[in-house]
Amino acid sequence: MNHQELKALDSAHTLQTYGRFDVDIDHGQGATLWDLSGRKYIDFTSGIGVCSVGYGNPRWAKAIYDQALKLGHISNLFYSQPYARLADTLCTRTGMAAAFFGNSGAEANEGLIKLGRKYSFDKYGQGRSTIITLNNSFHGRTITTLTATGQDVFHQYFFPFMEGFRYADANDIDSVKAQDQGDVCAVLLELVQGEGGVLPMERSFVAELARLCAEKDWLLLVDEVQTGVGRTGSLFAFQQYGIQPDGVSFAKGIAGGLPMGGFLVNEKCRGVLGPGTHASTFGGNPVCSAAACTVLDILDEQMLGEVQEKGAYLRGRIDAMEKKSIGKSRGLGLMVGVEVKEGYINKQLAAKLIDAGLLVLTAGPALRLLPPLTITKEELDEGLAIMEKTLE
C-alpha cells in the first residue's frame, strides 16, 4: 500500500474526527520513524506522550509477547499477577496506597471525579459535590471530563453538559477560594497544563492549594495523564512539587504504547470505592499490565535523571536559537512548550517542521515537544538541526 491508497482507505471507512497531517507512519526504532516510502522522521511527539520507551523497544516487546502467550485477558472477578505487581510498584514508588486500572486518561479522570464525590457523600451526605478545576485546563473528551475542562471551546455541540463544576484561575488562590459556596468536594488540576500550552503551575500556588484542600477537607486530585510516568523527570510531577495528593490519574506513557490508564489514591481514600461502585472490563489487562511493569523497570532513577538532563539540553538549545518565529521554551523534563511569536501560527510552523522531517505537536498557541523518554542525544541533535534550519 502506498500513501495515496492509505489515505483513500481512511477516507472511505474512518470517521473524519482528526485533522491529520499529510504523513503516514509505517515503522520506527528508538525515536526515529519511517513512512511507507522509506522517508525518515525524528519524533518529538511519542504518540502524544504515549511511546515512553521509544519504538521497537525489545524489553517492552518481549514482555508483551511472553504475557500474551501466557494469559491475554481474564475477568477482574479473578486474580492475576501482572496488575498486582504493577499496583505494588506504583504505590511503592509514589507513597500512594492503592491503584485502580482502566483504559484511558479520560476514564482515569472520571474515576477521580467519582472518588471526590463519593468521599464527600459518605462523610457529609448530599449537597457537597462540586469540583473546582482551572481555566485553560484539559481533562478528557467524555461528557463529564469535557465539562471539567476549563476551556469554553470544548463546551460546544454536546449539550446538556454535566452540573457540578466551577472554574478558577491558575496560580490564583483567591480565585479558587471565590468558587467555594459550601458545596465543594474536590479540586482537580494539572501541574503542567498540557493541551493549554505546556504551562507549569507555580510551586507556591500548589502549596497554598494543598493547604486549602486539607483545611476544607476537599480532595486534592491531580491529573497526571500527560505529566506522569517519567515525562517531567520524576515518576509523577507531584513528586517535584512537594505534595501528596489524595488521588492522581495516569495514562499515556504507562504501558509504552498499549491502551491503559488508571488512578492512585492515598490511605484516606483507600476504602471510598468498594465492590460495585467502579469497574472496567479491560482494566488491569494482563498484557497491558506486563508492558507497564517493564516500562517502570526501564524508567528507574537513573533514567529519570537522564530525562531531566535531556529536557534541560533540549530547552537550552531551543532558547539559544533566537528565531523570528519562536521564543523561549517552558516545561518540565521532556514535556516542553515553545512560544510562538506574534505574526506566526503554531500549526503552520508544525506543518513546516513535519514536512522537513521533524514530528512536533501543538498545544494552545505554542509548539509542544514530547519526545520518547529514551531518545538519544544523537536523535535530539538531529531533530534540533531540522528545527534550526527550517525556522530560519
What does this entry look like structurally?
With 392 residues, the chain is of the alpha/beta class. The chain has twelve helices and 17 strands. Strands 4-12-11-10-7-5-6 form a seven-stranded mixed beta sheet, with helices on both faces. The chain has a four-stranded mixed beta sheet with strand order 1-2-3-15. Helix 3 packs antiparallel against helix 9, helix 4 packs parallel to helix 9 and helix 10 runs parallel beside helix 12. The two termini are 35 Å apart. The mean pLDDT is 98.
Secondary structure blueprint with pairings:
Elements: H1 3-13, E1 27-29, E2 32-34, E3 40-43, H2 46-49, H3 58-70, H4 81-94, E4 98-102, H5 105-124, E5 130-134, H6 143-148, E6 165-168, H7 173-178, E7 184-189, E8 192-193, E9 199-200, H8 203-216, E10 219-223, E11 247-250, E12 261-265, H9 286-298, H10 301-319, E13 326-332, E14 335-340, H11 346-356, E15 358-359, E16 361-363, E17 366-369, H12 377-390
Parallel strand pairs: 3-15, 5-6, 5-7, 7-10, 10-11
Antiparallel strand pairs: 1-2, 2-3, 4-12, 8-9, 11-12, 13-14, 14-17, 16-17
Helix pairs in contact: 3-9, 4-9, 10-12
CA-based shape:
globular
Total helices: the number is 12
Structural class designation: alpha/beta
Order of helices and strands: HEEEHHHEHEHEHEEEHEEEHHEEHEEEH
End-to-end separation = 35 Å
The major pleated sheet works out as: 7 strands, mixed
Give the tally of β-strands: 17
Hey, roughly how much beta strand do the residues contain?
15-25%
The neighbouring-strand order within the major sheet is 4-12-11-10-7-5-6
